[in-house]
Fold this sequence. Notes:
This protein has helices at 10-22, 34-43, 71-79, 93-110, 126-135, 140-146, 204-227, 233-236, 240-261, 265-280, 288-291, 295-299, 306-315, 320-330, 338-360, 368-384; strands at 2-6, 26-31, 45-50, 57-61, 64-67, 83-86, 115-119, 150-151, 155-158, 172-174, 179-183, 197-200. It is α/β, with parallel strands linked by helices. The protein has two domains: 2-202, NAD(P)-binding Rossmann-like Domain (Rossmann fold, 3-Layer(aba) Sandwich), CATH 3.40.50; 205-384, CATH 1.10.1040.10. The strands form three sheets. A six-stranded parallel sheet has the order 5-2-1-6-7-8, sandwiched between helices. A three-stranded mixed sheet has the order 4-3-10. Strands 9-11-12 form a three-stranded mixed sheet, with helices on one face. Helix 15 (338-360) packs antiparallel against helix 16 (368-384). The longest helix has 24 residues, at 204-227. The protein is globular, with a radius of gyration of 21 Å. Nicotinamide-adenine-dinucleotide binds next to helix 1, strand 2 and helix 4. One of its GO terms (molecular function) is mannitol-1-phosphate 5-dehydrogenase activity. Residues 203-343 form the Mannitol dehydrogenase C-terminal domain. Belongs to the mannitol dehydrogenase family.
Amino acid sequence: MIAVHFGAGNIGLGFIGLLLSESGYDVKFVDVNEERVALINERGEYKVTLANEAGEDFVVKGVSAINGRDEEQVAKAIAEADIVTTAVGVGALPYLAGSIAKGIELRLQAGAKPIPFIACENAIGGSTMLKGHVLGKLSPELRERAESVASFPDAAVDRIVPLQQHEDPLQVTVEPFCEWVIDRSALPADFPTMQHVKYVDKLGPYIERKLFTVNTGHCSAAYLGYLQGYETIQEAMQDEGITAVLGEVLGETGQVLVRTHGFDEAEHGRYVEIIMDRFRNPYLTDEVVRVGRSPIRKLSANDRLVRPLLLAYELGIDTPGLIKAIAAALSFNFAEDAEAVEVQHGLTENGIGKTITHYTGIGEEHPLHPAIVRQYETLHQRQEA
Length: 385
Ligand SMILES: NC(=O)c1ccc[n+]([C@@H]2O[C@H](COP(=O)([O-])OP(=O)(O)OC[C@H]3O[C@@H](n4cnc5c(N)ncnc54)[C@H](O)[C@@H]3O)[C@@H](O)[C@H]2O)c1
Ligand SMILES: O=P(O)(O)OC[C@@H](O)[C@@H](O)[C@H](O)[C@H](O)CO
């Protein structure tokens, strides 16, 4: 069986590639990093190390790679694949659409069986977004027939994989925990079950639980930690002021999740505790600037900060913690992050009120808007003092 996986980065190598290989797939990575592609082809294997006391190693064998800019080769690989997955970042999904559409066209010509295309990104409806980009590249006639060879099940993926510090550019250290949840209703009939994957009939509750707990908590620790001058999540988690805000934030998103999806409160409390322990993992060095990366994406209306904030508002839940996290996100002035630079420019040019509306979609008339402005101003008065 052949898997084509877009993105030979941290999650691609350290999570999805590893699990696909354990389920019997030969993994063909597609990446735009030419050096990485060449090295994977030269070696045909790479090492994954667990971030725990034992530090166990897994060697993933039988791997190869294709340059993502070679659309013809990528399409040919897709024509022969049994599954296609991605972990490139949600913003890069449009750039995969051309070669995927060509691969679908080849499958249609060959009368090939249907296969799933699964976006393993941190977003609600990632595969559905990919589907939209791909269908946009097909003619109306092919678009109608595409469903006979391709389906796009949404998924939630969870494993903390920090920026790597190994001499070997292909070695990845990953946390031991991992969770890959796939919407089974969109899988082709008789699709072989993969090891370590949880199949569900409705993905909504799982992706929201993951995004609004792991990722909301993670970016809150990152933005608050950055403001305090910490370099890693592990350092930020030692700060009682930060963990107190994290407690507020995850209490608020927890109430939203319990009330919206009916999760058991006590069980959700245990889920949160496990996540806090994962953030503290002393065998990981996870930089706050990685976790806080792309603040425009993280501040957008459907993502980990604003969506739970607005859901909480509708449910009448107070959100002092989420408001602190959003004010900290707006203050993330890391000069090497293009989105952070853009937000800071917006603040200088247009002021806090308009900047909030521009990036979060929360209008000045919304009762939460002045609360975010006040929190942002308090934060900056405190910093200047
Ligand atoms: N690292 C984590 O802890 C983690 C956990 C769960 C989910 N995710 C999600 O997984 C995705 C990838 O994150 P990551 O941490 O592995 O990032 P990464 O930067 O380590 O890897 C992304 C890879 O995609 C490649 N890429 C970018 N554009 C491409 C294109 N057009 N075609 C082919 N390859 C392309 C890059 O060269 C890079 O190798 C993101 O959506 C992220 O939110 C990350
Ligand atoms: O990948 P992002 O930028 O959406 O979020 C940064 C981290 O929170 C994220 O990568 C986590 O490590 C991961 O989602 C854990 O499963």
